[in-house]
Specification:
The chain is of the alpha+beta class and about 90 residues long. The chain is built from 4 helices and 4 strands. It has one domain. The protein is about 25% helix and about 25% strand. It is globular and about 45 Å long. The model has no long low-confidence stretch (mean pLDDT about 80).
Length: about 90
Amino acid sequence: MRYLMSLKMQNSHDWTLLKYWGLLEPCDGKMMDGSSNGFYYITKDGIDFVNSRAFLNKYVILFNKKFLGFDGDIINIEDALGDKFNYRELMAL
């Protein structure tokens, strides 16, 4: 999460959608109003995806924040990052 915040993404919670692919899990803990504390940790599947050891569907299908399934081609992390990032350079491979 700190990495995402360093990219000035702290005002966007799009990265929380990664939970639908099983790449992130919310941390235990609630705010005083009962809402989520907003903290997540990366799962084993998330680590495998980042390390190019896992593949997933390109899209998740949601309706009113309810998970309905997956769609699209099977992709790896390099496909997901697109042309904005050089994965090998990012990971110093």
